[in-house]
Every structure is written in C-alpha cells, then in structure tokens.
Input
Amino acid sequence: MTPVSPMLAAALAILLAAQPAEARSDRVQSVGSMTFADADTLVVSDWRAGELHALTLPPAHGTGKPFNLSDVSSSIAKALHTQPDKLRFEDLAFRPDAEMAYISLSVLRATGSPAPAIVAVDASGHVSAIDLAKTRHASVPIASVPSADKMLWRDVPEATLTVTNMTVHDKKLYVAGLSNASFASTLRIYDLPLVAAGTATSIEMYHPVHNQLETRAPIREMTIVSLDGEPTLVAAFACTPLVTIPLKDLKDGAHVVAKTVGELGWGSAPVGMVSYDTEQGPVIVLANSRKAADLLSVADIAKASAQPGLKTPIKWPTDPLLGVKAIYLPIASVARIGIQDKDFLAALRRNEESGAMELVSMRKGAFLRLSDFVNEYDFADYRYPPDDGWHGVHHQLRTDEGYPDLAVRAQQ
Output
C-alpha cells in the first residue's frame, strides 16, 4: 500500500471533518416539524437532541389519486405495532412529485419518552414505516436551544417549541422557533445540503389583539413569496397576526421587527400555510386550529406590506380583524394541511364522530369535501335545473371523494 504523506493526511482530515455526520437511530430522540429539501431528502426537527436531521429516503411513488382515508390512525398504529390511542401526530409533508404523504409521530410508551416515528402513506391507504435505524441521514445542531427545564402550562417543555415550522427557498432551509435568548422568537437559516450550523435572527412583531410588541411567541406557520419582486417571508403567529419580513433582512445576529400587515382573529393558532399560483394570481391558504381557514391574495399582502404596518389594537370583541382582508374558506378542525400536487390540498383531521385521524384531499378552488355534508343536492330524487352551474362541480368532487355512483346524479 502506498503510504499517505502527512500533508495529504491533514487535507483528508479537514475534508472529512467538513462532511455531515452520519446519524443512526439512537441519535433521533424526537420528531416534529418536517419539510422536503428535495425529492429524496426529508428534513426533520428533533427538539430532544437539539438537532435537525436530513434523511435520505428510498425511491417511492404513490397512486396519483385523491386521499380518502377515513381512519389512517388504525393503519399507522398497525404499521408501528401499537394502538391508535398511543399516537400523537406531529407534522405532515408531501414528497415532491411522488403523491406520497409523510407523517411524523410520537408514540407513547409505558415508560420513558415517546418513541419517534415517521411513516409514508399513499392514497390507497398503504402505510410503510421509515426505519430510522437504517435510513441514512446527516445531522446538524440547533444553536441556543431553550432550557429543558422551563415549562409552559406546567407540563409543556418550552424546548418543544425549538422548531415550530420549516420551509425551503433557493437552496436554503428557513427554521422558525425559539432560542434561549431574551428575544426568544428566532428564525434560523441553514444552507442546503444540510452540513453546518445555521445563522439566527431574532424576531419582534406588533400583535394587535394583545396591543403590544412581542418577542417570545414564535412563528407558527410561514411561506416565502415574492412581494413586488422582493423575496419575502410571510408568517402567522398564534392568535393570529400576519407579518412580512424581507429575506434580505434575515442576517446572523440581527434583530428584525416584522411588519404586521393583518390581524386574522383571536383565539386560534395557525396549523398550516401553503402558497401556490392560480389563474387569478398567487395565493396563500392559512389553516387554523379554532376557526375557518383564510384565503389571502399575495397581491393584497404586497399592497399592505408597502404601507407602514399595523400599530393599533383591534376593537375587542366586536371588530376582531384588521389590515389585509382574508376570504373565508370552509376548512376547519384540521391538524395539518399541505399541498399534495397541482390539483389538491390534503389535510390531517379528526373525524368528529369516531375520533379517528383522517387523511383527505380537497380540490384547490373548491376547498371542501361534499361528503362532509348532507344537503338538498344529496337526495335521490333531486334533479339539477337546466341552467344550474353546480352539477359539473358536484360531479367532479363526488368522483374525487370516492363516490362515482353518486357522481352520475350530477349528469342527470
């Protein structure tokens, strides 16, 4: 064997030190917020370890059909060899161009901390567990994580909010959450592929419901859009202020005052924010925990962001809204929402009668599932008038939701 020169050995050592650490399952202590860095790389937050993990997934492809899974809890529990009541659903992410849903969960155990788990689900209902012991992944630390002994509401570790949301833009990973600094609300940025620690910017914003500047509560949901040509973070906090932050302002060590452009209603928390293009222009859909979803025009947000921003409180409780206007959407009581593909949104939600977790698709533009309701159109003897404009929509939605026999009625 040819001996390696000291100079070459030193160079190899530096090169190897710069490579991401290969992590095994014993390093994954928890799973929470997730996002896809690319079609094969799933980034998962781990608050217990204070790390982000980039998992390299094997090839997969779904059925290309809408999701109509009325009890995904039982299927997931079976795949994880546990019971549905032991599952705590954390996040939902759709694999690009694959029609596959990925769900992160905490699985309660008789003793010790919950076990982390990630499953892949296709529209047929097939569930496969990601083997964290064998899945190749790289890990990077999250700096300045909240102290593990600080609690919210007595039993919620503040550290569970280390990462509250993640999104990818222009080969960078944007990570919202908390730090241990006095200005705790933090936006961290990592270069992709994930190989090194990120930068951190503290975030402050005016909350019209509370009538105060706030620096602790973290961003809950966010997306990145272009506002008049400027790449901009649009973010929502609990109870529910909407803010904008130009990406150019997010510099390491900086403190940024976000511009509050809307107040969307008190007493609720964001659980999903997605953006996409429509024939009428780009839009944002914001799903909420305790109220209907909001449909927001990016053009309207750009106009509001060009103004000084909100600085006065709402008139509680009679006038709960301020700033940019949102259109009501009949999407409520969802746990998570994501973009399935060019035609569909999909949501994790609880069935109100059975309590089971559902995974269901909703066609963009309609924003509802007809099978959630019983109304005039659903009776067997109903006939659509010749000039009725809804029969085509009803035919499409009934077909999407797995009722092709009932869809025929909309053609009669």
Observations:
- The chain is about 10% helix and 40% strand.
- The longest strand covers residues 87-95.
- Helices lie at 6-18, 72-79, 298-305, 391-400, 404-407.
